[in-house]
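Quick one: structure tokens for this chain, please?
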Amino acid sequence: MKVLVTGGAGYIGSHAAQRLLADGHSVVVVDNLSRGHARAVQRLREHARNGDRLGFQHLDIRATDTIETLIREHRIDTVMHFAALTYVGESVEKPLDYYENNTAGSLSLLRACERSWSHAHGGVRRFVFSSTAATYGEPPADRVPIREDCPQNPINPYGASKLMVERMLRDSVAAAARSGSDFAAACLRYFNVAGADHTGLIGEDHDPETHLIPIAIQAAMGKRPGMTIFGEDYPTSDGTCVRDYVHVEDLADAHVTVMQKMTTGTCVAYNLGIGRGYSVKEVIAAVERVTAKPIPVRIGQRRAGDPPVLFADPAKIRAELGWSASWTDLERIISTAWEWMRRNPEGYGR
């Protein structure tokens, strides 16, 4: 297949591009590099068996006409859409940035896909969307583990901006079916993404870093003076929040699995996770074991909007597509992040 990967210079998008190349697909990465890294794409090209199957365009997805031209010239038939702003706190402070980038940007991308249906090569027929568990908001305790039929009530602009895209996709698929066009979409909702490419070639590099595992590793490396646990009085086994951690290579595998098995005229949603949760204290203890280094920790106040327990019920994608996470051991997941950060202490460099 010929796949356009938006946000392909970012953390998850670069791992998806790597997997697509390994499977023999042709890939065009589009990224405005506001949060992504050109060096990630460069590394993929240098290490791919056929690096000429990887193209890169420094481009914003809101450039509808240029995206349409790119789809036509490269005869793109599939879009994997990762390009997004993803910081929950930032979305509360700058909501319009999130609606402009995530929602309006996705509208622009979908418009280019819609126009492509008149192209001689048939245009984009499959659209795999990187959604989020943030679309669920704070589900009641009796809805955890979370299934796909859990009500979607996002509590921040980030989750709301992604939910709007899910709705646009459902409506676009229905409209395409009525007009006789072949189009299918999938919304993949994932929880906490962790780890890195097991070869150490690419990995996670955010500025600022907000994810628990890389923050804990940075503290173990001495790159931070320590770290804060936000609340230890939750109704959990050790008083700290419990979350589902899915390995980034499993996510890439899930995207490819869904892409290969999409059915024309459908818009499906799947939760991606390992089906169990780990507490903040369990994660920190696991990082200490993997790195063999102590992590200075202080206890802070709870953060507003942090539910005690969130983890996925991945039964639907397992039953319908046969996919399940292969990385389920927390220390094994952390070890890939540790290896990446140990080899690349400055990430991709700045």
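The chain has a mean pLDDT of 95.
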